[in-house]
Amino acid sequence: MDSQTEQAAPPPIETRADFDAAVLWAVQAATRRGARRLLMVDRDFAGWPFGRPELLQALQTWLRLPQRRLVLLAAHFDEVPRRHPRFVTWRRDWAHAVEAWSPPPELAGELPTLVIDDGPVCLQLFPGPQLRGRAALNALEARRWRDGIDAVLQQSEAAFPVQTLGL
Questions:
Q1: Which of 14, 83, 10, 15 is nearest to 45 (CA)?
Q2: Maximum separation of any 2 CA atoms in the chain, in Å
Q3: In the chain, which stretches have pLDDT less than 50?
Q4: In a domain, 165, yes or no
């Protein structure tokens, strides 16, 4: 892949298809750049493209690299099994590298929708009734988000177990 393609971010996010493409771009950019940690944050991940085979393949390609960690942070994960059964099944094979966390209730309402890595990859949806956002390679913005999310993660509890216990 040439460096111009590698540097290019997707266009502004204005539709669900734009968001889906931007999430895929963020994972692929993290893979190309050798990012070790990828943070995905949302209130409930209901509208994410976790059921798309191309995204799961991109995540798998990235996770096959050594010492990779996918960190999911959500107020709750109730919608994930209902809306993304393919992701739930896929996650079982990658449980050793995928963490899921939920913040305390007082912080849950403030969760942004974003994807950041440990480098410059930053994808953010803006709050509001319309789907709007942007994806970019911006190290300063990614660091600012990472610092804020890491502070929330320190107060969060493990969530969304790979297997639920029951009788």
A1: 83
A2: 55
A3: 1-5, 167
A4: no
CATH code assigned at 88:
3.30.870.10
Measured in degrees and rounded to the nearest 5, phi and psi for residue 143 equal -65, -40
* Alpha helices (runs of H) in 34-160, residue ranges in sequence order: 53-63, 79-83, 85-93, 105-108, 139-154
Sheet holding 98-102, edge to edge: 133-137, 121-125, 113-117, 37-42, 69-74, 98-102, 157-158
How many domains would you assign to the chain?
A: 1
In the chain, the percentage of residues whose pLDDT exceeds 90 is: 86
Question: For the chain, how many residues are written?
Answer: 167
Nearest 5°: phi and psi at 48? Answer: -85, 155
Task: Evaluate the CA torsion angle 80, 109, 153, 41 in order and state its sign.
Answer: positive
State pTM to two decimals: 0.92
Q: Which of 17, 14, 84, 16 is nearest to 44 (CA)?
A: 84
Query: Would you say residue 98 lies in a domain?
Result: yes
- Both tokens assigned to 45: 């991940």
